[in-house]
Amino acid sequence: MPKHLRLWVAIALLPTYCFSQSKAVESLQAFGVEYGVEISIQREDFDTEAAGYRVIGKAINEEGLESYAKLWLSEFRRYPIDVFKKAKVKKVILCTGLQVNEQIRAAVPAFDLDAMYYDTDLGAKNPSYQRSVVHHEFFHMLDYRSGQMRKDPDWAKLNPSGFKYGDGGSKMRTSGVGNLTKEIPGFITRYGTSAIEEDKAELFAHLMIDPEFMAERVAADPFLLAKSELLRKRLEALGLSELLESKATILNR
Question: Are 95 and 158 found together in one domain?
Fold first, then answer.
């Protein structure tokens, strides 16, 4: 077979993801330019030392990048164009096998590194979970920049009398803790009871992705209503009122 024909056959037999991956990369890079944030697609394993913790990850899975890129871009395009500037996020790292201090994570807000890490493979069979992670973890960054992430008396006083948070999200890792529930007054998941920062991030994430469920819960739960109203005021103060437009019927009931 002539050399040029052998080359053509070799190209024709390449997995289709080699081509779709490049489209995903192009879309991600274009988003980065538009939103003023560096998008880093991890091609090698890494071990990054941060302020008191280590972020560990593996190279991207090329075959799975396209579907995750579509989901991630779809969710972040709901935010105003200056949102990364507001959150002081300079870099987004996409990888697989993400861990913090050897604990598996779907995403990591690395506050001291001005960076967000997202695992493109974890939860790939559950897009609703991946969508929730996108917003939950990014909200941590916004909350941290506000200076009230872990110490927030105005939020804490909205809980039912006598309630106490748990020992933190890192201590509540059992299966099902992130499932939506109607059984806990003031909370939408058991994971939200683990810490005040998880409570806020869970509420924000599900207001973004589960508006029908949230409308029902907020209407029936005065604790959630009060929290939703405080969250609305804080987002407006950050200039993120655009996020509330489709949620107005929920947050203003």
Answer: no
Judge contact between 182 and 146, C-beta under 8 A.
Answer: no
Under 8 Å between Cβ of 139 and 79? no
pLDDT (0 to 100) of residue 22: 74
Measured N-to-C along each axis, helices 62-76 and 17-35 cross at an angle, to the nearest 10 degrees, of: 30
Instruction: Please give the pLDDT value at position 77.
Output: 96
Alpha-carbon torsion (225, 194, 137, 197), positive or negative: positive
Burial of 99 (0-12, 13-18, 19+ CB in 10 A): middle
| Pairwise CA distance, residues 118 & 173, whole Å | 18
CB atoms within 10 A of CB 170: 13
Q: Residue 43: which domain range?
A: 16-124
Total domain count, the chain: 2
In a domain, 3, yes or no: no
Q: Quickly state the pLDDT bin for 209 (edges 50, 70, 90).
A: very high
